[in-house]
Every structure is written in C-alpha cells, then in structure tokens.
Specification:
The protein is an alpha+beta fold and 486 residues long. It contains nine helices and twelve strands.
Length: 486
C-alpha cells in the first residue's frame, strides 16, 4: 500500500505537462502587457516629434534588446533554479520524515494485531456469555475498548500520513518538472544570446565608421538630450496620474473595508438584540406561567411552548405572544457597493518610496557601478553641449545597482542611450542608467538600494563599455557628485 502511494504520482507525471510555474509566469506576463502597451505608446509619441533621419545605432536596437532580454531571462532562470532546488530538498526531507513515521505506525499496528491474536481474539459477546467473574468481564471489555480506540486512532493517523506522502510526492514531481522546464529554457536563452551577440558583432563591424561619424555630430547629442527630457517629462505626468489613481484605489479599498466592518458590526448588534429579545420573551412567558400556576394553587413547570392565550394574554402586546424566533427583524444592512477596481496597468508606476526619502540621503548614496568616472557633469562633450550626467567606465557585464529604493518606471531601448532603465524615487526624483548590456528589471518592479537592476555595456552605439548615469529632479538634470560617493 505504501509503495503504491509513493510510486503513483511519479508514474502519473507526464513529460511536458503544465506546471504551476508556467501558470504563474503566464499570469505575470498578462499583467505586464497593459503597462508595456502604455510605455510603448509613450515612446512612440516621443518619436513622432523627431525627424525621420536614420540613426546608425537604430540598426542595433533589435539585437541589443534581444541580448538584454536573454541575459535577464538567464539571471531569472538561475534564481528560479536555486529556489526550486531548495524547495525540492525541503520536500525530500519531509518525505523521509513521513516515510519514517509511516513505518513506525505500521509496526505499532502490527504489534496491536499480534497482541490481540495472542490474547485469543475474544469478542464481546463471548465474554458476556462466558459466565465468568463480572469484574473480570468488565475489565476485559474496557481493555478491548481501549485497544479498539487505539487501533482506530492509529489507522486514522496512518491514512493521513499516507495521504501526506502522496501530496509530498506530487509536489516533488512538480518541482522536478519545473527544473526540467527551467533547464530547457536556459538552453534556449543561451543559444539565443550567442546568436544575437554574433549578429550584433557583425552589425558593429559594418556600421563602425557611420557610428563614429554620427557620434561627432553635435546635433545628434542635442537630439538625444531632447529625447531624454521628453521621456522624463512624459513619465513624470504618467507617474502623477498613476499616483492619483493609486490614492483613489487605496481610498476605495479603505471605504470598502470600513463598509464591510460596519455591516458586520451592525449584523452582530442585530443578532445580540434578537438574542436579548428572545431571552426577554422567554422570561415573560415563564413569569406568566408561574402567575397562572399560583392562581390555581399549584405551581406548574413551564411548558415548552407558550400557553394558550387567556384573558391576561389578550391584554398583552402582540410581540409578547410571538415565539422568540418570530420577533420582528430589522432590514439587513445594505451590502457596500463594490466599485470597479483600478486596472493593474493604471497604478503600476505609482511611487513606491515616500516623497522625502531620497532627498534625505544626499551625500550618502553609493555609486551605481564599480568603475572610473570618465566624464563629469557639466563638462563639454567636444563641440557639442555639456554632459547632463556622468559616464563611468566599467567592465562589460558589471552589475549596475539602484542608488536608492524606488520603482522602475522605464526599462527599454532608447535611441542615444541603448538599453535604458529609469527608477523613480518619489518626490519627483529619478535616477537614469544608460548604455547597459542587459536590463534585469522590468517597468513596475520595486527595487531597494543596492539591488542589481542592469549590467554595464556599450549599447546604443557607445564606443566603450560603461554606464551613463543621471539624476533628475522635476525633470531637470543635476550634478550627482554632491549626492553620490564615486
């Protein structure tokens, strides 16, 4: 029986079946789709204001986005794999514990049955008809009852543990299926990554001269800065709209909770009032019964139902004649009106940090990446405008970390900045990270200070690997040197 319970789920698992992980992943992607649609529309709106002039870096966009997606997927899969292995180890330990418990209970049950057999397996009828000493018969009957109860409890516990073994085995099989699924996805993503890296290398070789020429054009730099300013302004408006929507949703939830609590309190108060009315009606019925008994000279016990109405009853109010359970009930409290909740995409970018939290950390923020500052805020960019941020040289693939807690509000490829990620820190403060090889977070994700959010690179046609970094307040770039320890 135990072997069947252990072996069944494993044999029932079919290769390629839908795992819990697949369902959760599909649900998360569906939820992100609405927000992605909003951000794509915002990005497209920015592009409408620009000239139709081609940029050599745009040719790299698809390949660099694919490299970013593959790197993020590989990191996510590695995290999932670690978590799933940990869960599998826990399930294995739990299985061993359950198996030991089941084996022990089987031994106990076997001993009980053996002891009962050795004792002669006398049944209760034989004992009662034996004519033996009544004290001995009573003692033996009690002993048999104890044994029967112990057997019943042991059998119930054994059944429960066997069921737990089945559940454990099913969970372990699901974890193994998920690991297989993760391994297959890793192979696919690695192949995709190598393919896109090769494709990007070919494109860079063919576009190298054009990229160098365009980087030297002052007009290109100015257009890039204008594009960034436009993106930040539109994001700020979207964040403000979503903050208002999130506040309204929070208020709606609070009102709904308050209405439900009020309805519950009212229902409980009505129930208590009905109970008091019932008790009062019962007390009155008892009093009248005693009064009638005293008149006749004999106090009769109160009948279980109200006595037939007499002259005294006729003078009483109608309520006194009703059964307690028939006492008038007040109308039930109206159910709170459940308004339509806000869609996830309409509140996904609402600020996640308090308004003053970022400003309070001035001078204490850590550098977003380990490297050397190659270009400082305010210095001239050749013949073009001055730098609006800093460029930090860093090895390709180096972790880029959030300088403070906040919410990712943009994570896409943008002309002039490559794979770009923007974090909103509340209070209209934003940090901007450009030229990344890969974006490890998605729009809507909440991050803590020091969380890896990207990996450094040279996307967007940049000539050297590193990170372009900006800080902005109310849409205006400011010098991060006074805020961050480079």
């Amino acid at each position: 029986m135990l072997m069947a319970a252990l072996g069944g789920p494993a044999h029932a698992a079919q290769f390629g079946k839908t795992t819990e992980r697949s369902k959760q992943k599909a649900a998360a992607e569906a939820e992100r789709a609405g927000l992605q649609q909003k951000l794509s529309a915002l990005k497209k709106d920015i592009g409408k204001t620009e000239s139709a002039k081609d940029d050599a870096a745009d040719t790299l966009a698809e390949s660099e986005q694919a490299i970013s997606d593959a790197n993020r997927s590989l990191r996510d899969l590695a995290q999932e794999q670690g978590d799933t292995n940990t869960r599998l180890q826990q399930l294995s330990a739990e299985h061993d514990r359950l198996a030991a418990t089941v084996a022990q209970q089987k031994q106990q049950l076997a001993k009980l049955l053996r002891d009962q057999y050795v004792a002669g397996n006398e049944d209760r009828i034989k004992l009662l008809l034996s004519g033996d000493n009544p004290n001995r018969i009573n003692r033996d009957l009690q002993m048999m009852a104890y044994v029967s109860q112990a057997q019943a409890r042991l059998l119930d516990s054994l059944r429960a543990n066997l069921k737990a073994v089945e559940v454990n085995q099913a969970a372990a099989q699901n974890a193994k299926d998920e690991l297989q699924e993760i391994a297959e996805e890793e192979l696919q993503q690695k192949a995709k990554l190598e393919q896109e890296k090769g494709r990007r290398a070919e494109l860079l070789a063919s576009l190298s001269k054009k990229l160098v020429a365009q980087r030297k054009e002052a007009g290109n730099v100015e257009r890039d800065e204008k594009r960034m300013a436009g993106l930040v302004d539109k994001l700020a408006k979207l964040i403000e709209e979503q903050a208002i929507a999130a506040a309204a949703e929070k208020k709606r939830q609070e009102q709904l909770a308050a209405a439900r609590a009020e309805a519950k309190a009212k229902a409980e108060a009505e129930a208590r009032a009905q109970a008091r009315a019932k008790a009062a009606a019962e007390a009155e019925r008892q009093r009248l019964a005693k009064a009638n008994g005293a008149k006749s000279g004999t106090i009769k016990p109160a009948p279980s139902q109200p006595a037939k109405s007499d002259a005294i009853d006729a003078d009483e109010p109608k309520v006194a004649q009703q059964k307690p359970e028939e006492a008038p009930k007040s109308a039930p409290a109206p159910a709170p009106r459940d308004e339509k909740p806000a869609a996830p995409a309409d509140i996904a970018l609402a600020p996640a940090a308090p308004a003053g939290a970022f400003a309070a950390q001035k001078g204490q923020l850590r550098a977003p990446v380990t490297g050397k500052v190659a270009a400082k805020f305010g210095t001239k960019r050749g013949d073009g405008p001055s730098w609006k941020g800093v460029f930090i040289r860093a090895a390709e693939g180096s972790d880029v970390r959030a300088v403070a807690a906040g919410r990712v509000v943009f994570a896409e490829w943008l002309r002039g900045f490559g794979n770009l990620i923007i974090v909103d820190h509340g209070g209209q403060y934003m940090s901007i990270y450009g030229n990344n090889q890969a974006l490890l977070k998605r729009a809507g994700d909440i991050v803590k200070a020091g969380d890896p959010i990207a990996s450094a690179g040279n996307s967007g046609g940049n000539e050297e690997s590193g990170l372009y970094f900006e800080l902005r307040h109310q849409g205006t770039a400011f010098d991060p040197a006074g805020w961050i320890k480079f």
